[in-house]
Amino acid sequence: MSFRNVYPSGTAIRAMTAPITLRHGVGTGTLTGNITLTYRDAQILSLDPGGASRTITLPAARDGAHFTIANVADADERLTVYAADGSTVVAIVPAAGSIQVAAEGATWVAVATGGAVPLPRHAAQTIDMADAALTLVYGTAGAGQATLTSELLFVDANSGGSQENLIPPPVATSFGRILFIVNTGGEAVHFRDAGDTTDVMQIASGECAFAFCNGAAWFGGVIKTT
């Protein structure tokens, strides 16, 4: 593999004597709908989706062009970045995440990610369901919810009955998520779909399970008994 040198042979290297300033600076705002970018827009964008997931369509690729997009949502709202054709997904930016995209010839590619996108690795989170159904969320938890801080969950249904329902976050903001669940209580944990309509799996007391999301649905299965 070779990387092109766009400068003529013999071009001298000169030291920079001032900070780099982007021509169009930084753009901020709250979206009210989907948007299409042009080369007159800021190259760095800090955007709040404004209450729903949105799409951002890039302009036709020009070799070397780039945009950096930060999603500053305070809820489970994602930004899906499309190439100029409006159908090719370049990146999906969840809440508190960011992405840098660049044009390689006539193709847009994602070159860097940032923000609080990945969950902490190998950290364990203990969850007490407190004898009630519980919904997992990525942002601030409300009544009947718990904020995910790890991909490894030690769950106790703490139920007065035989089982409790554990409801995952919405699929729209869970693409690529993997959860490992250990039932540490005496009752079964029923891992439901995001709409709380049906069981994805039933995790008996002392069993371990995994769950993953492909962006359209949650899947999973029990893998062993501890």
Helices and strands in order:
Layout: E1 26-30, E2 35-36, E3 44-48, E4 54-57, E5 66-71, E6 79-82, E7 89-93, E8 97-104, E9 107-115, E10 124-128, E11 134-137, E12 145-147, E13 152-156, E14 163-167, E15 178-183, E16 188-192, E17 199-203, E18 207-213, E19 218-225
Parallel strand pairs: 1-3, 2-4, 3-5, 4-6, 10-13, 11-12, 11-14, 13-15, 14-16
Antiparallel strand pairs: 5-8, 6-7, 8-9, 15-18, 16-17, 18-19
Gist of the model:
The chain is mainly beta and 226 residues long.
- What is the average of the pLDDT values? 85
Q: Structural class of the helix and strand makeup?
A: mainly beta
Count of helical stretches: 0
Q: Could you give the distance between the termini? A: 49 Å
| Beta strand count | 19
Radius of gyration: 22 Å
Helix content: under 10%
Strand arrangement, major sheet: 1-3-5-8-9
* Spatial shape: elongated
Q: Into which percentage range does the β-strand content fall?
A: 35-45%
The stretches of 5 or more residues where confidence is low (pLDDT under 50) are 1-5, 117-121
**What would CATH call the class of the largest domain?**
Mainly Beta
The CATH topology of the largest domain corresponds to Jelly Rolls
Q: State the CATH architecture of the largest domain.
A: Sandwich
Q: Main sheet, how many strands, which sense, barrel? A: 5 strands, mixed
What letter string, H or E per element, gives the SSE order?
EEEEEEEEEEEEEEEEEEE
- Number of domain units: 2
